[in-house]
Amino acid sequence: MRFLLDQDVYAITTRFLRGLNHDVLTAADIGASRAADEDLLVIAQEQGRIFMTRDRDFGGLVFVRDFGAGVIYLRSEPSIVHAVHEELERVLQSYTEEDLQKAFVVVEPGRHRFRRLSQ
């Protein structure tokens, strides 16, 4: 799968996804570390990537402001990152890339919520 990771996603998560052989770019990789949230969603959508973040504000952008990009929101902090990775791996095995590009998914230890975007 193809991902664009927000600047707030831990480096360990970047390594985890790359270790699973996913195509991962970070905001820093593309010179967008200081880009506005809306711009990052547009970039992800234009490049056919699923956007991954730890920033809860993206829910408002996706649902209230109707940005149609797929987002995975990681409810993670250093002490639980491995548990979040376990659930993230389940998500990536359970849904296709196309499913995730049309959804907002909240991932936390031991569970996730998948909400399809209206399109």
Gist of the model:
With 119 residues, the protein is an alpha/beta fold.
Derived from helix and strand composition plus strand pairing, the structural class reads alpha/beta
Q: How confident is the prediction overall: mean pLDDT?
A: 90
| Uncertain ranges | none
Arrangement of strands in the largest sheet = 2-1-3-4-5-6
- Figure out the total of helices: 5
Largest sheet: 6 strands, mixed
Describe the structure.
The protein has 119 residues and is α/β, with parallel strands linked by helices. It has one domain (2-116). Helix content is 38%, strand content 24%. A 6-stranded mixed sheet has the order 2-1-3-4-5-6, sandwiched between helices. The longest helix is centred in the C-terminal third of the chain and has 14 residues, at 81-94. The mean pLDDT is 90.
Keywords summarizing the entry:
single chain; 5 helices; globular
Describe the protein's topology.
Elements: E1 2-5, H1 11-19, E2 23-26, H2 37-46, E3 50-53, H3 58-64, E4 71-74, H4 81-94, H5 97-101, E5 103-108, E6 111-116
Parallel strand pairs: 1-2, 1-3, 3-4, 4-5
Antiparallel strand pairs: 5-6
